[in-house]
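## Example record

The block below lists the input lines for one assembly entry, exactly as stored, with component labels intact.
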Amino acid sequence: MRTTVQDVARAAGVSVSTVSRALTGGSVSPSTREAVMAVAHRLGYQPNRAARGLITGRTGNLGLIVPDLRNPFFADVAKGVTARARAVDCGVFISDTDEDPVAELEAIATLRHNTDGILLCSPRSRDAELLAAADPQNTVLLHRRVPGLSSVVADIVDGTRQAIRHLRALGHRRIAYVSGPEDSWATRQRLAGLAEFGSDAGLEILSVGSVAPTFDGGVLAGDLVLAGPATAVLAYNDLVATGLLHRLAARGAVVPERMSVVGYDDISLAAMSHPPLTSVAVPKDRAGAIGLDLLLGRAGSMTAAQGAEVILPTTLVVRASSGARH
Amino acid sequence: MRTTVQDVARAAGVSVSTVSRALTGGSVSPSTREAVMAVAHRLGYQPNRAARGLITGRTGNLGLIVPDLRNPFFADVAKGVTARARAVDCGVFISDTDEDPVAELEAIATLRHNTDGILLCSPRSRDAELLAAADPQNTVLLHRRVPGLSSVVADIVDGTRQAIRHLRALGHRRIAYVSGPEDSWATRQRLAGLAEFGSDAGLEILSVGSVAPTFDGGVLAGDLVLAGPATAVLAYNDLVATGLLHRLAARGAVVPERMSVVGYDDISLAAMSHPPLTSVAVPKDRAGAIGLDLLLGRAGSMTAAQGAEVILPTTLVVRASSGARH
DNA sequence: GTGAAAGCGCTAACAA
DNA sequence: TTGTTAGCGCTTTCAC
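Predicted C-alpha cells for the full assembly:
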C-alpha cells in the first residue's frame, strides 16, 4: 500500500491536517514543518494528486491536443509545452487526434473536465465548432485565432512579407505561391501577407493553387510551378517545400539556380533538406510554453480567462535554397 | 458547477448507485440503463476520473516517457501509444525528459504514483538505475531490454542481418558501419547482428567508430567513411544516414554509384531524403501500442506484471540510396 | 499553532 | 434490480 497522509501523521506524531499544512504551505510552526517534511521524505511520501484535485478543484494537469505528433511542427509545439510543464511541475495529457475532427471534439470534451485547461492545435475545425466545444475560460488556441478564445499565434503576415522581400531583393519578379488547405486560418493569413504586394508594380505573385500540406503535396506542386514563368516559389510549409525540392531535382531543375524555394515554419527538416531550405521560422515551442503560462495564470498580467491574444514574431532563416535570379 | 452523478440521479429519478452501475456496466435493467444514459447525455455528464480513480485504485491514465519528442523515432512511438490509448479510452501523460537522466528518474517517480503504468523509452540510462526507479509490475520498456522488466523491442539483430545481406547481394564486399552511443542497448544489438558476418570470408565489416545519433553525427561520419575502402555503409540510424548523405553529396560522392547507404529505423525522413534512403524498418508505433496493451492486460495472456518480453520483426525497406557496386 | 471533522465525486459493499 | 451507506486520500473549515 502507498504511504498516505495518515501514515506520515502517525509517524510524525501529529494530525493529518498538520501534515497537510506543513506540506502545502499552511501556517505551521517551523519546527513542526521541518519534522513533518523529514518524515514524509523518509517514508517516500508522494501526495495523491487525484485526491488533492478532488478537493481543491485543480488537477495540476493540462491537456494538449494536436492533429498529428508525427508532424514535426506539432512535435515542436509539444516539446515547448512539456518543457515548460516540467518546470512548473504540471502534468500534460497529450491527445493526438490523427487529423480527425470528431476525435478532436471528443478529446476536448474529455480533457476539459479532467484538466485545469486545454492547449488546442486545431488548424482545420471551424470556428463555430471550436466555440461550441471549448470553454473560453481555460482553453488556449495555438497557432490559430478564433474570436472569443485566447490564442498564441505567430505573425504570419510579417513572415510572408519578409519572405517576399527577400526574394524580391534577390532579383525575382515572378514568384509562385503554393497554397495549403483552403479553409484554414493559416492559409488566410499567408494570403493576407501576400496581398500587401498586390500593388507592387514590379512584382507578380502567381498562385499555383492549393495542395495537401505534405511532402506529397509538394511533389505535386513541383510540376505546377515548373509549368509557369516563376523563378522562385514560396511554399505553404516546409513539408510542401521539401516535396517541391524533390520534384524539382527529379525534373532536373537546379535549386536555387533555376528556381529559388522558400518554406514556412522552419521545422528541423529544413536544415536537413537538399539543399538546406530557406524558411520563415515560427516560434513553435515558445508558443506552446506561453500558452501554458496563459492557462496557469503565470503569464504576467495576462490569463487565458481574459481572452488574451499573443502574437509572436517570425524570422526568415536564409539557407541555400534561395539565391539570386539567373 | 459541473454535473455530477447526483445531478444525473436526481434528473433520472434514481439513486446515484444506479447511475454509476448504468454507466459502468453493472447489472441494471435495460430500460433504466437507457433512461440514465439519456439523461447523462442530455446533461453533458462526464465522470470525474479523479474521483473514480480514488476508489477503484485505477486512474485510467498511463505515462509515456521519451527522451525527445522532436526525434521522429519517438514521435512515432508516441503516435502508436496515443492511437491505441484513444481506442481503449485511456489518458496518456507524456513526459519529454530532454535527454536528461535526472528528469527521467523524476518523471518515473511522479508517474508511477499517478498512473496505472509507465511506458518508458530510455536508450541511455543504466540497467541498475532503471531497476531501482521503476516498478516491474507496471512498467514496460520500449525499444530496450533490461532483465527483470517487461519490454517491447524490435528484432534488431535480424534487421542488421537483412541489411548486410542486401548489400552483399548488391556486390559490396567492404561495408562500413557507423556506430552510435557506445553504452546503449541498441548499439550492442546492432553489433551482435554484425558479428554474425565476422566469419564470412568474402566480406569485410569496417567499423568507423561511434558518432552522436544525429544528423551532425552523420555529417561527421561522412568523411570517415570516404577515407576508407568501403563501397557501402550501414548507419546507426536514419538521422545519421541523412547526415551522411549530405556530406557525401557535398564531397561529390554520388549515392549509390560511389557509395551505397543504408539507415536504420525507417523514420518518415527516410522517404524524403535525397536520394530516398534504404532503411531497416522498425515497428515503432506498433511497439507503443503493444506496450500499452501489456500494461492494461489487454495483450492476450501476457501482462506487464509477468515480465513479458515481446520481440517485433524488422523489415528492410529498399529505396534508391543502395545499389549495385560499381 | 494544532486537531477533529466534514466532504470533494465516485464506486462497492451491503441491504432490501 | 435497486437504494443506502461507507470511504478512497486529501484539504479546509471550525473549534480550541
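Chain B has three domains: 5-56, 61-154+284-312, 156-282. The two ends of chain B are 74 Å apart (CA to CA).
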